Amino acid sequence: MDLKLALRYAALSAMPLLATFCAQAETVHISTPGTSLLLKADKDKELRFYHYGEKLSDTDIKSIMASKASWVNAYAPYGINTRRETAVAATHTDGNMTLDLVVDGVEHDGNTTTISLKDTHYPFFVKLNYRTYPDEDIIEMWSEISHGEKGTVTLSEYASGYIALPYGDVWSSNLYGEWAKEGWLEELPVPHGVKVVKNRDGLRPNHAAHGEVMFSLDGKPQENAGRVVGAALCYPGNFKLRTLNDNSNWIHFFAGINEEHAPYILEKGETFTTPALAVTYSGNGMGDVSRNFHRWGRNYKLAHGNKLRDVLLNSWEGVYFDIKEDEMKQMMQDIASLGGELFVMDDGWFGNKYPRNNNNLGLGDWVVDTSKLPNGIKGLTDAAKKAGVKFGIWIEPEMLDEKSELYEKHPDYIIKAQHRANMPGRGKAQIALDLANPKCQDIVFTIVDTLLTKYPDIAYIKWDANNAMPIHGSQVLPANKQSHNNIEYWRGLSKTLDRIREKHPDVVIQACSSGGGRVNYGFLPWFDEYWTSDNTDALQRVYIQWGTSYFFPAIGMGSHISAAPNHQTGRRTSLKYRTDVAMAGRLGMELQPKDMTDAEKEQTRRAIADYKVIRPVVQLGDLYRLQSPFDKKGAASLMYVTPDKKQAAFFWWKTESMAAEQLHKVPMNGLDPDKIYTVREINRIDNKPLQYEGQAFTGRALMANGLPMPAFHSVDKADATDFSSRVLILEAK
Ligand code: DGJ
Fold it and tell me: Is 346 assigned a catalytic role?
């Protein structure tokens, strides 16, 4: 290695707060403030993986190399001596199915290190990229695959990245679920053999499974202790996570696009770029790993990730498809009078020949239904201005219904297999546009662009997608590339979203997909927030939001107060409880305010004012999970703390209601032990304040003991409810 370069790397590695690339001879040390990835890239040898996790010093690295520590192939190719799982597999033009990849070189460019691999015989190349972010404990890895063979090469495996974990009592924490039950947490020891978590929905990857995982290396997952590796595949389509426990020194983890039924036909000279796999590590438990993801998410992934979100009212559960101009105006005035800042008109406002009165027609025809909205969208944006709120609108631009003028004109624009009938989904009517088709990309762009250009007062878009890709097929891809249809869909949508964001950088966009179907870091970069779930039941939301918080920040977590009984579960919870749960994310409302009593409105007005006080703490602060609902201790609790530790918002919600229940006292976390915090309850409904209202405690005491939480609210008998909850604000001088 050139001496100047070596000195530069040495100097950089002495700056602890900067991410550094330390290429000592053939050793590649990719590091962040608190983590290290150690590889050895000897020319013409296989790329060796030694370590990912705790930050290594130069001495550590020297010892690892001197002690001939064990290593594994950092991007194992298929074909030669590969009894284990592999990262990449290809069939060469001549039919040979083996790869023999060796290191060709290492390059550093800004925050990215690229290691080039080449086949020992064929002109087949893989570039492995490792990227860091200033001040973040995140490393992103992705690969670029190309070849110079005479014909095409078929890729049958193409992982984004690989890491190996030391064998031990390793547990994985995954999210699973279903529509209305997203983000459910499952924590299990990593079994021997291969554990696969994958998705084949095509369009809504995150109802049933998630492309993110945490590995706890020191036994049962703990919130504040133990070594934990977190990984998030940044891809919105079909994904696959493979964890191989093969009776070796290692547990192997591969993540990437789900390659099943998706062999990729790679042309000569074409580069296949995989999505990125983002990894993070902490020696202090899962809480730290979540905070790493949240900070990176806010700083680099979500659109406008550090800008406070508005309090909104969404019309969906209030009126469903029954949109009427007068009622929209009334809802705007109501949310304004409650202190909200934005009104969002949901589904049901469009369609001419096929008015959208139900979920089985009209999608694709994005013209105002003037029988519902005689003064059109302009009438609504003007009314919103008058009411003093911003205006937002729902669209589902990737989809169309069989009963739509768009479909009648262009049946050739949909996802479809030849000789097969359409496979409509929602309402037995809905189909996805084939975004592999540039004409469909233009349609989606034009829907959004026209709305935003014609009505510059639209401040917010709820972008929905309520269909799977129920049939494999594209009407534009050639016969030999039908296997690319899911990949090409996402490429098409990404290009379209890039165009939209380039022209409309400021509009706030929510990623919704039948609730939380698209909560992933591959999709979120164009979006400000995500609709966490169509389930707005406050009790079940405690669980859904808990799991989602493992990887995704509260600033993006759409969380709405809805009516009681709840429309998904039929459960009745108090307005206080519904509000306290919704306040732990991006607060909104999703009901018809005119159905509320004056007392409920007054309570909500106070709650929204209170939320505005804690909004910067919730949305920009650090999350500390305190007591998990999944541990079934009768209550769940978490808190947010500002980075300067001067303010905190503490949440506590009952998760079951029993008389004489023995409740755990929940110690707080994340505070400055030496600061003195004054505690105040917000959104209070009790007749008398908590015994410690307005009192001051050291952070040390609060973190050692917590505060007692009365099991029930002290309210008049008529107002008594089962599930109690508390939100406290803590302020230090
Ligand atoms: C599904 C979404 O998740 C709901 O919030 C709502 O927007 C409906 N679609 C509208 O059809």
Answer: no
What is the whole-number distance in angstroms between the Cα of residue 363 and the centre of ligand 1?
13
CA of 413 to the centre of ligand 1 (A): 23
pLDDT exceeds cutoff 70 at 81: yes
Identify whether 534 is a catalytic site residue.
Answer: yes
Instruction: Provide the token pair at 274.
Output: 């995989």
Q: Mind listing the pLDDT tens digit for each residue in 11-46?
A: 333 333 333 444 445 899 999 999 999 999 999 999
Residue 66 region, left (φ>0) first, then alpha (ψ -120 to 50), else beta?
alpha
| CB-CB contact of 545 with 183 (8 Å) | yes
Tell the CATH topology of 19-301.
Answer: Beta-galactosidase; Chain A, domain 5 (2.70.98)
Say which residues have a Cβ less than 8 Å from residue 44's Cβ, sequence separation at least 6: 102, 103, 104
**The whole model's pTM is what?**
0.96
Q: Hunting for tokens 């570039």 — which residue is that?
A: 127
Q: Has residue 318 got a pLDDT over 60?
A: yes
CA dist 140 and 531 (Å) reads 25
* Homologous superfamily of 624-732: Golgi alpha-mannosidase II (2.60.40.1180)
Assign residue 402 a region (left: φ > 0; alpha: ψ between -120 and 50; beta: otherwise). Answer: alpha
Domain map (residue ranges) of the chain: 19-301, 624-732
Quick one: how far is CA 400 from the chain centroid?
A: 26
Residue from 437, 428, 429 nearest 410 by CA: 437
Pocket of ligand 1 (CB under 6 A): 316, 346-347, 394, 464, 466, 512, 514-515, 531, 534
Distance 514 CA to ligand 1 centre (A): 6
